[in-house]
User: Which sequence fits this backbone?
């Protein structure tokens, strides 16, 4: 069974790059640009893992409100969340 991954990042280029990388590794990937999109995708796709860019956390979400909202809606499962930071120029130069 294919694992579901949600990538939340306000940078469209980063979402595209990360989605490609994880698709190649066999993940089914959905993306969201902000907190509202994150909450929508959490309800819709029920991912197994969420990668959350730390800038989105500060700009669009208060504390871990996306995760807390998700737990409130579905307390039967625990969603692992990884906060990420990256250097996008590394990937640009490899292409």
Assistant:
């Amino acid at each position: 069974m294919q694992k579901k991954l949600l990538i939340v990042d306000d940078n469209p280029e980063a979402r595209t790059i990360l989605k490609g990388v994880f698709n190649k590794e066999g993940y089914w990937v959905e993306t969201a640009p902000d907190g509202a999109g994150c909450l929508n995708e959490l309800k819709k796709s029920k991912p197994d893992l969420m990668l959350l860019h730390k800038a989105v956390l500060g700009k669009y979400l208060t504390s871990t409100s996306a995760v807390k909202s998700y737990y409130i809606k579905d307390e039967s499962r625990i969603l692992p969340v990884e906060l990420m930071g990256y250097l996008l120029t590394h990937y640009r130069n490899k292409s």
About this structure: The chain has one domain: 4-94.
